[in-house]
């Protein structure tokens, strides 16, 4: 019998609750196209209940139960969650794999990162205690000033399907560490492990209402969450179009947002590289996670002197990637997440051909896989900068290629995009790498690699890739409000106005 996902309800106020309209959404295994369960479909009525629960939790006992408790108190819960996830790592990884198609080895790695992220923000929560009342140096001795860092309030966290649990935790862990109460709305295409995170929170005794998990469609659950007047901030990772809608909704009530909106990231390969090392990083940078990476270095910009030889090597590496059911041992490329994504990717490829590009390899379903949303890793050459494939994010295993002659030309091509999330440069000339890293218009630059990600380092983009940063201390700052406290310490009167005459 095929693996099934656990049947869960919405998680609101520390308990499972059936959606008010009782609707559910089928979960489809993208490797088999079989229905393997369903998830609850929240609507605006459920959002109302969840926001009310979060507000109560945030202000319970005048905030002493969570919001204004010590960071050390909150850290204990974050560490308990990390321990439970580590304990259930294999189970969670399998659920992630059958839900979104991610190769099992990658899913296991993600679960280790999930636990590590909770541990990291537990440390930062504890460190927050020592940073409270940090003094501010003033030019006048008659005043003393310090800063308080306080949780921003109730936050809405709307997260994507490519790293279903990990990218949710990139927001959940710092939000809880800061003392916020949160409502998590994961993508309807991959919500299963986020519901299991809710069960972990219930098991460790996280105070009711501090984390609520609402699964459902974007327009039915995400939109009312983004526009809700009692939600103090929205953090979103997803598409540019949805990010724009969230900004518009938040603007009506002057609500802060942080947005990570994907990209069309470049990888520049110079002529002085080891061809095999560069080829593997180029493949990994675009085809890892089945090519569904917001920071995928999907525009290869390669020096013309090595282009032919490099592409020959790259094709050999790509043809050696094991494409299979993602639960199979050694799988390195599984299916894309859904039928809709599958059709969208194939349309991008056919448009590239129609516009005059050449499909060097891939571009079709693998012959040995008759079922599932599988697309062979695809390399497209003879690309011009006006083509759709060069300008738009595919979100699938598709790499497009251009050549360059000079460093200036490489930079011009790299920055020829409305996006600015990731970027990579591969060269043995480290001074050149340093020049490129300063000149490239992106929030992240990788040198002699592509895609490494650590929860200690900031993650986010420029231009249409959004603003604000996840991860690191910057991720915690996303959920903190800074309060200035200034005291007059002199015994002397202020003396600005003439005092009234004394009778």
TrEMBL record:
<keyword id="KW-0560">Oxidoreductase</keyword>
<keyword id="KW-0915">Sodium</keyword>
<keyword id="KW-0520">NAD</keyword>
<dbReference type="Pfam" id="PF00171">
    <property type="entry name" value="Aldedh"/>
</dbReference>
<protein>
    <recommendedName>
        <fullName>aminobutyraldehyde dehydrogenase</fullName>
        <ecNumber>1.2.1.19</ecNumber>
    </recommendedName>
</protein>
<comment type="similarity">
    <text>Belongs to the aldehyde dehydrogenase family.</text>
</comment>
<feature type="active site">
    <location>
        <position position="260"/>
    </location>
</feature>
<feature type="domain" description="Aldehyde dehydrogenase">
    <location>
        <begin position="23"/>
        <end position="485"/>
    </location>
</feature>
<dbReference type="InterPro" id="IPR016161">
    <property type="entry name" value="Ald_DH/histidinol_DH"/>
</dbReference>
<dbReference type="InterPro" id="IPR029510">
    <property type="entry name" value="Ald_DH_CS_GLU"/>
</dbReference>
<dbReference type="InterPro" id="IPR016163">
    <property type="entry name" value="Ald_DH_C"/>
</dbReference>
<dbReference type="InterPro" id="IPR015590">
    <property type="entry name" value="Aldehyde_DH_dom"/>
</dbReference>
<dbReference type="InterPro" id="IPR016162">
    <property type="entry name" value="Ald_DH_N"/>
</dbReference>
<comment type="pathway">
    <text>Amine and polyamine biosynthesis; betaine biosynthesis via choline pathway; betaine from betaine aldehyde: step 1/1.</text>
</comment>
<dbReference type="InterPro" id="IPR016160">
    <property type="entry name" value="Ald_DH_CS_CYS"/>
</dbReference>
